[in-house]
Amino acid sequence: MLAYELTGQKSRARELLAPTAGRNDKVSVRYTDGKVVKDVKYKKVEADIQVGKCVLV
Predict the structure, then answer these.
(1) By the 8 A CB rule, do 29 and 49 touch?
(2) What are the boundaries of each domain within the chain?
């Protein structure tokens, strides 16, 4: 059993284990309809990622 499971800090540990892109970093995303957008700033697609319209590639 991992230490973060013992303390009940699962969500915080998940953030530490899975770093996300910074708002000004360029990323590539794939939308649910199959469209891929490359080299777009994270802040431009951040809302779409949060609601599940696209995922980081």
Answers:
(1) yes
(2) 21-57
